[in-house]
């Protein structure tokens, strides 16, 4: 029996074979997933993870695809995306909200404001899902997910359970989930504060992004992590890579650390991959800097 049939017989959710992934990523690149699965809820997710384990398949979690580069030849491992069943909101305490992993940062802000609380402002300009933001410890100079997270509910093939944030070993744009772990809910601590000032800060932050980032072109956010004490964007610019183009993809002429898709439909993930390799080699040669990609790559290029 094919994996799709086994899934269909045992779990509830949407199963799509040969699912195009370019439209599920913000840079609009990449080939199809052999199998895309959107579970109805956590029980179905756990059951699916068990099926994958039994069949020796290791699934790839796709959130909002705001940090993911998919290879042109697509993805052989099953791709799992959390959707409608993972958008809940509960209030276990006066200043703590539990949100489903599929929600966007804006939902966290709206939840906070319902109770006159502050905290998740920095999440608003960061595209993607809360699950992806936990996995990446997404953030800005105003804060990162680990500064709000009390605990995350993690699903594996063995079941689902809550892990305190301190057990997730957060670092710069990373965290350590249990092997094969999927974030299904996040418990965030909010605080009392000056809501008007916080709202003004959000507007300022969004205006800054509009001035400095290629918001009107499909892109992938920061391609590389900032090396200690420096900025990847500054170094890429100094190496002459701002605006540098290969095929249909370029390092943005507005922000050198952002890859942009200049030819949606025609550009290839291999062009993006070639730019990543070129940048790493050139910065090493010119400045002795080893760049670490921040983007996640999956599939065959
Ligand atoms: C215009 C733009 C601006 C950006 N600005 C910022 C910024 O200021 N700061 C910042 O930190 N990032 C920024 N990013 C990058 C991106 O928004 C973040 O990395 C975000 O956390 C990605 O979330 P996602 O749901 O899209 O994750 P995806 O790209 O779908 O996945 C990213 C990683 O998380 C894993 N993952 C996703 N969901 C789950 C889950 N539920 N459980 C376990 N693992 C999961 C994936 O397997 C993958 O390894 C920006 C991106 C863009 C396009």
Commentary on this structure:
The chain has about 300 residues and is α+β, with helices and mostly antiparallel strands. It folds into three domains: about 5-85, 2-Layer Sandwich (Uridine Diphospho-n-acetylenolpyruvylglucosamine Reductase, domain 2), CATH 3.30.43; about 85-195, Uridine Diphospho-n-acetylenolpyruvylglucosamine Reductase, domain 3; about 215-300, UDP-N-acetylenolpyruvoylglucosamine reductase, C-terminal domain (Uridine Diphospho-n-acetylenolpyruvylglucosamine Reductase, domain 1, Alpha-Beta Complex), CATH 3.90.78. The protein is built from seven helices and 17 strands. The chain has helices spanning about 5-10, 40-55, 105-115, 130-135, 195-210, 230-240, 270-285, and strands spanning about 15-20, 30-40, 60, 70, 80, 90-95, 95-100, 140, 145, 150-155, 160-165, 180-190, 220, 245, 250, 260, 295-300. The strands form five sheets. It has a five-stranded antiparallel β-sheet with strand order 6-7-12-10-11. A four-stranded mixed β-sheet has the order 1-2-5-3. A four-stranded antiparallel β-sheet has the order 13-16-15-14, covered by helices on one side. Strand 14 (about 245) and strand 15 (about 250) form a beta hairpin. Helix 1 (about 5-10) packs antiparallel against helix 2 (about 40-55). The longest helix is centred in the C-terminal third of the chain and has 19 residues, at about 270-285. It is globular and about 50 Å long. The two termini are about 30 Å apart. Bound molecules: flavin-adenine dinucleotide.
């Amino acid at each position: 029996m094919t994996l799709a049939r086994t899934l269909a017989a045992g779990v509830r959710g949407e199963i799509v074979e040969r699912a195009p992934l370019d439209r599920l990523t913000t840079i609009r690149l990449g080939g199809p997933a052999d199998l895309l699965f959107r579970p109805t809820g956590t029980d179905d997710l756990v059951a699916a993870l068990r099926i994958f384990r039994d069949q020796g398949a290791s699934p790839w979690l796709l959130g909002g695809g705001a940090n993911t580069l998919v290879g042109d030849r697509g993805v052989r491992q099953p791709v799992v995306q959390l959707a409608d069943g993972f958008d809940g909101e509960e209030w276990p305490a006066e200043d703590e909200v539990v949100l489903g992993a599929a929600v966007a940062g804006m939902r966290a802000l709206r939840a906070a404001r319902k109770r006159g609380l502050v905290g998740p402002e920095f999440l608003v300009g960061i595209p993607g899902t809360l699950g992806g933001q936990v996995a990446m410890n997404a953030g800005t100079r105003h804060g990162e997910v680990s500064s709000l997270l009390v605990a995350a509910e993690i699903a594996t093939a063995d079941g689902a359970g809550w892990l305190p944030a301190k057990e997730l070993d957060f670092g710069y744009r990373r965290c350590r989930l249990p092997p094969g772990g999927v974030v299904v809910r996040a418990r965030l601590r909010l605080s009392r504060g000056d809501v008007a000032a916080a709202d003004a800060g959000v507007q300022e932050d969004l205006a800054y992004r509009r001035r400095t980032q290629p918001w009107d072109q499909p892109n992938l956010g920061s391609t590389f992590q900032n090396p200690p004490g420096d900025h990847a964007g500054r170094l890429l610019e100094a190496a002459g890579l701002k605006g540098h183009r290969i095929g249909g993809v370029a390092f943005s002429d507005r922000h050198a650390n952002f890859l942009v898709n200049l030819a949606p439909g025609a550009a290839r993930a291999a062009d993006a991959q070639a730019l990543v390799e070129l940048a790493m080699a050139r910065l090493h040669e010119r400045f002795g800097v080893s760049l670490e990609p921040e983007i996640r790559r999956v599939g065959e290029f």
